Structure formats: structure tokens, C-alpha cells
Amino acid sequence: MGETKQVLNLIRGSMSQFSEKEQRIAKHILRNPQLIIHTTINQVADDLDIAEATVFRFCKRLGFKGYQAMKIALASEVVEPIVDVHEEISEDDTTIEVTNKVFQSNIDAIERTGDIQDEEAIQIVVDKLSHYKNAYFYGNGGSSIVAQDAQHKFIRLGINAHAYTDSHLQLMSASQLNDQCVAFFISHTGANVDILDTVEVAKEKGAYTIAITNYAKSPLSNAVDLPLYTVSEETEYRTEALSSRIAELSIIDSLYVNYHIQNLDEAKNSINEMRKAISKKRL
After folding, report:
1. CB 97 within 8 A of CB 27
2. pTM here?
3. Cα torsion at 153, 155, 161, 165 (round to 10°)?
4. 28 pLDDT exceeds 60?
5. Superfamily of domain 115-279
6. CA 231, CA 135: separation in Å to the nearest integer?
7. What is the maximum span of the chain, computed from C-alpha positions, in angstroms?
8. Which pLDDT value is given to residue 5?
């Protein structure tokens, strides 16, 4: 699986999970991707003053068989010059410079997340929603906003959509699921204990489980039937969870629009009925 992944996005998405030495390797590759494809493993180890075995284990952690396999995958990405427009925010930046960098960080997260989307995976999700029409969205903290946004969108299309952001209600809801339900679990780290507990219950009840999570190996991505991934970077003044929220919302939007197109007549009828009901709330 690792050999089909985009190396730079995979490294960016995994940065917060790396050890100190692994972060040194990761930053070295991100800074010098074109140089790396012409560098041996012992040269990298010498440049960073670490053991070759550490570099090898780093490649294995990314999902590659070794350093050479990682280099081959990386080479396919750097055939054209890479321009990394992401900039660190500095205390010396002006207000508009900070603002522009925040916007650019969000743009980067969306673009990089878009680059790794798998058409087959998206289609599977849309097919499941079209068939079952029962969608349950689970998220805590910042991800709770994404879960609520998903409910707000999909209920418009005639789907029986629910969002749960309280850990107790999440477990109670999951206990009532069955094999006619699609359950979405939204967690940037993929390591939220409450979400993982809820996944376990949902799977026991036969629900089809989907994760929207960071582009890295995590307990959540391994636990569900199908993971959908985001990519974002962390900086000193901006945690990766901030820009990942924008990427998560974009995945929800893409599922919404794809479902709408593939269920056009039904979706139009549902939206019209919803608009009639909401019109009573307007003067």
C-alpha cells in the first residue's frame, strides 16, 4: 500500500507522530526531495548524524519496504520542480502577513487533501449512502463541528442523518445501529479513545464504518472498513487540526455533491420539501 502513496503528503500528515529523530529525517526530505532521490541511505544518515537503521525504520513506518522503495515513490513526485508555498508564521509578521499565511495554509491543506483522494473510495461511500440512506456522524472537539455540518447537509438530500458529539450519546447511538447503517468517524489524530470505543460498538452491530482522518497509519484508519484521508501541516502558531478541519469539511462537501448528482430526482424533491418547511421561518 505504501508504494502507491504520495510520499511528501504522507510525511506531512504523519509529522506529529514522529519521534525527534524521525522528524529530522522528515524535514530533511521535505526540504530536499529532489536531492534525496540521488542520495544513498548512508549519506542521509551521515548528513543527519543518525544510524542507517533509523532511516530504514522511518521508511518502514511510512509503509515502504525500505529506503529504496521510498526513493522510487518519491522520484515520481519530483520530476517537476516542487514549490512549497507554505511559510511559517513569525512573531515579526504584520497582521496581513499572518492573515495571508493562514489562508495559504488552508489552501495547502485542501489541495494536498484533494491530491490523495481515491475515486473508488469516494464512490463506495456514495453507493453505501444511496443504498442505505442512514448516515451517522461521530466527532469530538473540533471534529464535532464537521459531524454537525455533515448532518446539516445530508438531511437536505433525504438521508436519515444524525450527528453525535457527546461521548455517552455516541455509544448509545452506536448500540442501536445495524447492517443498514453507514457510520462516519471524524478524528484528525485517529487516536481519540471515545471515537475508537464507538467504532468498536458500531462494527459489532454490523454498520459500515468510514473514517475521515489524517493521512497516516492510526488506530482509527486501521479499525474502520474504509478510511478517507486529509493532509495538513502543523506550525508553531497553528496546530494541524485547524487546517485539517477545512480539509474534512471539503471531503464532506465532495460526498454531498456526488450523492446529489447520482440521486438527482430524489435529492431535488427533498431539497424542495426542506425549502417549503424552512420558508415558514422567514418573514
Report:
1. no
2. 0.74
3. 50
4. yes
5. Glucose-6-phosphate isomerase like protein; domain 1 (3.40.50.10490)
6. 24
7. 72
8. 55
